[in-house]
Amino acid sequence: MAALIQAVQVTRAFGGLVAVNSVDFSVRRGQMKALIGPNGAGKSTLLNLLTGITPVTSGDIIIDGSSIRGRPAFHAATLGLARTFQNVRLFENMTVIENVMVGCHSWTRQGIASGALRWIGHWREERLIIEESHRQLGRVGLEAEAGADAASLPFGKQRMLEIARALAGHPQVLMLDEPASGLSTRETAELSSLLRQIVSEGVTVLLVDHDMQFVMDISDEVTVLDQGRTIAEGTPEQVQSDAAVIAAYLGTEPN
Ligand SMILES: Nc1ncnc2c1ncn2[C@@H]1O[C@H](COP(=O)(O)OP(=O)(O)O)[C@@H](O)[C@H]1O
Ligand SMILES: [Mg+2]
């Protein structure tokens, strides 16, 4: 099956440091794919390259058959790519539900270029946005906090809010950078079932995380990066028994 997202011989250098080095990587439609590796391996950089936030130094990124080279950073959103960040990024001066409403912009008539809520024009559209935002808050268990200030939420709930905002845009691909980091065991279990549900609805998920049990439990396929290069790829079972992976990563304490 053709890849929905493909990195072809992608390299990204920051000055003399090569963060991602000639990487071939792909995600198939409908897959739950994980990217793991030690700190500094290049995982977040690869996500930034795949979404066009960071331009490639060389190589190409193909989304749904088309190269995104030279496209502006917001282009990925118009292709249905949504993501969350390693350091949660919320609008802290807005309420919980307002944060999710912002995520609806990709399917509203105002479109992607608008940057605030006040120009959401027609009342009927605004009502649809509010209904959809409540629905997404319900999915992540934050319905009761809809009117609270986003900044007042505990950390785990801020992570779930960021996911709700991403889902509100009805993405075809959801990329998550360390979503389980800082979550309790119970919150991680809730996150697992939410991600399984999302995939069962046809959304493709690409996940970066350090929590091995979480990653190995839910992923169809795992790619391991180390020092900017792919060192292994396969099913969770294959990757966990790979000698290079054990040496580079699993055998040592994750940091
Ligand atoms: N914007 C940047 N400027 C300079 N160096 C960067 C930048 N982003 C990442 N790096 C470097 O690239 C390497 C890979 O980083 P990153 O992709 O964040 O790794 P990971 O997410 O796997 O921990 C690290 O050495 C990091 O310091
Ligand atoms: Mg990272």
Briefly characterize the structure.
The protein is of the alpha/beta class. It has 9 helices and 10 strands.
Q: How would you summarize the topology of this molecule?
A:
Elements: E1 3-14, E2 17-28, E3 32-36, H1 43-50, E4 58-63, E5 66-67, H2 75-78, E6 81-84, H3 96-103, H4 123-139, H5 155-168, E7 173-177, H6 185-200, E8 204-208, H7 212-218, E9 221-226, E10 229-234, H8 236-240, H9 243-250
Parallel strand pairs: 3-8, 3-9, 6-7, 7-8
Antiparallel strand pairs: 1-2, 1-4, 4-5, 9-10
Bound molecules: adenosine-5'-diphosphate and magnesium ion.
Can you offer a commentary on this structure?
- There is one protein chain.
- It is globular and about 55 Å long.
- The chain has 9 helices and 10 strands.
- The longest helix has 17 residues, at 123-139.
- The chain has helices spanning 43-50, 75-78, 96-103, 123-139, 155-168, 185-200, 212-218, 236-240, 243-250, and strands at 3-14, 17-28, 32-36, 58-63, 66-67, 81-84, 173-177, 204-208, 221-226, 229-234.
- The chain has a 6-stranded mixed β-sheet with strand order 6-7-8-3-9-10, sandwiched between helices. Strands 2-1-4-5 form a 4-stranded antiparallel β-sheet, with helices on one face.
- It is of the alpha/beta class and 255 residues long.
- It has a domain at 83-170: 3-Layer(aba) Sandwich (Rossmann fold), CATH 3.40.50.
- The chain binds adenosine-5'-diphosphate (ADP) and magnesium ion.
- Magnesium ion binds next to helix 1.
- Residues 43-44, 86, 177 line the site of magnesium ion.
